[in-house]
Amino acid sequence: MTDALLSVEGLTKAYPGVVANDDVSFAVASGEVHALLGENGAGKSTLVKMIYGLVRPDAGQMHLSGKPHAPASPKEARAAGVAMVFQHFSLFDALDVAENVALGMETPPPRRTLARRIREMSEAYGLPLDPGRIVGDLSAGERQRVEIIRCLLQSPRLLIMDEPTSVLTPQEVRILFATLEKLSSEGTAILYISHKLEEIRTLCDGATILRQGRVVGSCTPAEKSAAELAEMMVGSTLSAPKRARHEAGEVALEIRGLSLPPAHAFGTPLRDISLTLRKGEVLGIGGVAGNGQDELLAALSGEMRSPAGRIELAGRDIGGLDPTGRRDLGLLTAPEERLGHAAAPDMSLTENALLTAHGRERLARHGFIDWSKARGFAERVITAFDVRTPGPENAARSLSGGNLQKFVIGREVLQRPAVLVVNQPTWGVDASAAAAIRQALLDLAAEGAAVIVISQDLDELMEISDRFAALNEGRLSDPRPAEGLSVEEIGLMLGGAHDLERPGGDRPAARPASDAGAAEAHPS
Amino acid sequence: MIRLEKRPQPSAIWKTVTPLLAVILTIVAGGLMFAALGTDPVAAIRTIFWDPLFHPQYASYSRPQLLVKAGPLILIAIGLSIGFRAGIWNIGAEGQYIIGAITGAGAGLALYPSEAWWIFPMMVAAGALGGWLWAMIPAILKTHFNTNEILVSLLLVYVAENLMASMAVGALRNPEGGGFPGSRNLSQWPAASNPELIAGTGMHWGVMAAFVAVILAYVLMSRHLTGFHIQLAGQAPRAAAFAGVRPERLVVFCLGLSGALAGLAGIFEVTGPAGQLSIDFNVGYGFTAIIVAFLGRLHPAGILLAGLLMALTYIGGELASFTLGIPAAAIQSFQGMLLFFLLAVDVLTNYRIRLGRTEAAT
Fold first, then answer.
1. Interface predicted TM-score (ipTM) of this complex, two decimals
2. Domain range spanning residue B153?
3. Distance, in angstroms, between A490 CA and closest chain B CA?
4. Which strands sit side by side in the sheet containing A251-260, from one edge to the other?
5. Name one GO cellular component term (chain B) (predicted).
6. At residue A266, does pLDDT exceed 50?
7. Residues B349, B223: one domain?
């Protein structure tokens, strides 16, 4: 870590009304895995977009291997040796792996050469990938490998990874980390964006912490505890969610052998799902996205109806009721997709409050809307859940993801549900907002409501669940008490044999759940 | 370099300014077109926008025409706008208008020459029912077989036109009309006529109905849950399903309502200004109302103003082709430009224009 591969000095970028980056300086050495740590909106994305040539800085300079680095486009950045793997993949489902890789190259070699190079690269870095497979059939982890291979074929000196583990199972995370370690041992620098503190502690050599566009500190992550890192990131002490011990009450929700066809061509059918949910209980449902999470939520929300006798709420058959009817009985839901599903993007927060709350909060009489009451309810949600917005008249799409998520969850929680079902409640939400949402879910359960949390974030599920079940290809495993479950057991529950392949070496021994997502100790 | 940047939320100012801007652009582009046709553009524009209301010679005839023409346009456009807000595209209001006229007139003529007071109200109800039934054809085909309501409703216009032609020479032909096509003159049958309520204004029951529709539509869209759900379904269909809106019910409601209002416009027209069913009874109100709905921003108050403006271009256009010899097709192009420019400048509501270097969207 002597000479810097990339050095950034005084980088500043302002957007109308907000300074995204203010005088940011840091350096990354060759072979270093460097973390950019910060809450949503701290300026991490803007910073790496400037390095990758997507955004031009207003002031400041960058040097790559001692030479000035001011890319006007991603093309120039790639030519200079910078590659980036985005959080959201840019792949064509209908094309195969090699075709997708070729599309990302300036001058793709002939297909046979390319296929051979993809094979070589995937073997060398332990990323098993068949160049002839159609991308639409790949798992999220395999899709990410396509993106990584696409970057590696350019032999980058600096690889930027934006929240790479958010879609991966623990096994896939391990494969990824082994690859990144191999890359760094060969001298490639890696700039790693994440807010998962444990994985940064295991993987990264150095970290730069951003808050509100400014560098507020740097550290060696392994020397700090996760709590210390979180405090640096948030600027205040985070309290871990508190759970009150409670006895499971009577049955709130019962699903018996529920099978449903997929709602659309790319959906997953639900297969013979059974579960019993008791009052005061939090049931965590894990699984990689696309294994029936959306369908399960739709079956519970009432967007998809079920045959008689499959779903009972407090002993009453609700399979045929629509969302309004189920809400009236106290079954509330919050879907994963915030914009367009849980909330209407162009509508105000007041209108979005009305969207699910008009019945239980009596915001309408005989169909006539009481707008001042609706506004009052929106304001209550905004206050109670610390939603950062100038006021309830603002459009939902003007809020950041985390703030909108707080609004969406808060809207349901404040309606005092008997059963609340949430899908990916903290996806893309910063640490303090995520903690607030989890605490709200636990408080709700403590007051006697039954809660189902569907999430890909296993740390989160282990933190708040009383029982854990896994959803895989539309099947739900038997729920087991969350306490004492090891990562390895969880991985097996999540199933999916294609996720278990691993570059060389034996399967490691079972490890405690708090290390979910972490790999072997990193040589630092 | 010019580029467009998405606004965080739609601009309230531009939402109001864009229709005015579209009108100005239409006047400029239309003026150029008239000049290219060899007509003095200033005279043409003045004839279209000014003379119908203030010309010393023509205004006494054309001024009442303003409400006569605006009434059906507004009535139909109000119904269409509610569907459009929900993303349900009834393009066949012209057909529902025709069917409303046929069923309403038919129901009345069956009782000719009775003088009962309830004949006119009964004809109005029959007209609305006819338009509603005609709109139920695309609605039910859509909810049951997932057909496209744009195509079905549009094609049913041509069916309706032929039906009307056959009625005018067949079942509803005036037995005392000496074999000429066309029904009895309803405006001269007191029990069925829809007279001018205040002399010299053009105000008739249809215009009253249009004003009432404007008010009710405003209440529905801004105060009632149904209106909220209609907007929700148009903006974010998945959010609407999550809220508990049933798309099929919305299709039936919106198509039914716009069909009934178009049918009302038809029966008011046939009993009043038109006077009788004839082969050339329909003059395109159902299609022009689509322009009116968009020009009025799908908002009831906007539609009221847009309807009056479109009526003005209709009357002024006739006047211009009569006094200045401008071809009818040029007048129609002029009206089409209005919609074209409105849709074009609409971009400014959701986007702002930035001059300068390209920067990738974030």
1. 0.84
2. 38-326
3. 31
4. A270-278, A251-260, A311-313, A316-317
5. plasma membrane
6. yes
7. no
